[in-house]
Design goal:
Elements lengths: L9 E7 L4 H10 L6 E8 L7 H6 L3 E4 L5 H14 L4 E4 L8 H6 L4 E5 L11 H7 L4 E8 L9 E8 L6 H23 L4
Parallel strand pairs: 1-2, 1-4, 2-3, 4-5
Antiparallel strand pairs: 5-6, 6-7
Helix pairs in contact: 1-6, 5-6
């Protein structure tokens, strides 16, 4: 879906809200020669997001907007993205829902990682809901972002077995490890020739 120019790395922005472990994973990945992405900036709705410290370590530009006025803040973000010539957005634990208008502007160029086997368990508390429903498997999905929550076209998924003794916390920990691997694989799948 994303068009490439030559064999340059894709100028990427990562959106985060919290600890930023998926952001750190993408940063590490971006430094590899075989990686198709170059992270230019990180955008957060939370000035206290722990993940912002990784931006400091990697000298990545930080853009913080609180999303109190969604329409205005999205306008500001779009301007910043244009100014930084961003071609791809990776959502990594971004806890705000982007408007249909914003998504349209970046159509087919926004990816998200979600901690369930979509279309099951969209939204929050995925691990708790999977355990309560006696699912045998949970997992994670990388998908394109569409105007409907967690409903865009799936790029890749990874199953994770649910054990009898699992709690939402233990399951989340195992799924997160797979998220790191899956996000990298999905990016390599989308941009195989870089």
């Amino acid at each position: 879906m994303v068009k490439l120019i030559g064999s340059r790395k894709i100028r990427t922005a990562v959106f985060i809200s919290g600890t930023g472990s998926n952001f750190r994973n993408l940063l590490k990945f971006s430094t590899l020669k075989k990686s198709p992405i170059k992270i230019i900036c990180v955008i957060s709705n939370n000035s206290k997001a722990k993940g912002l410290k990784y931006a400091r370590n990697y000298k990545i530009k930080k853009i913080i907007l609180k999303f109190t006025d969604k329409k205005n803040d999205e306008k500001k973000i779009l301007l910043k993205l244009r100014k930084n010539k961003i071609n791809l957005i990776c959502l990594a634990g971004f806890m705000k829902i982007l408007s249909a208008n914003f998504i349209k502007r970046f159509n087919g160029k926004i990816l998200n990682i979600h901690p369930s086997l979509l279309p099951k368990y969209k939204g929050l508390d995925t691990h708790k809901r999977a355990i309560q429903n006696n699912e045998k498997f949970s997992g994670c999905s990388v998908h394109y972002v569409s105007a409907k929550l967690d409903s865009g076209k799936i790029i890749l998924q990874k199953k994770v077995k649910i054990f009898d003794k699992d709690t939402p916390k233990t399951l989340a920990k195992r799924v997160l490890k797979q998220e790191y691997i899956l996000y990298r694989k999905a990016l390599t799948k989308i941009f195989p020739n870089l």
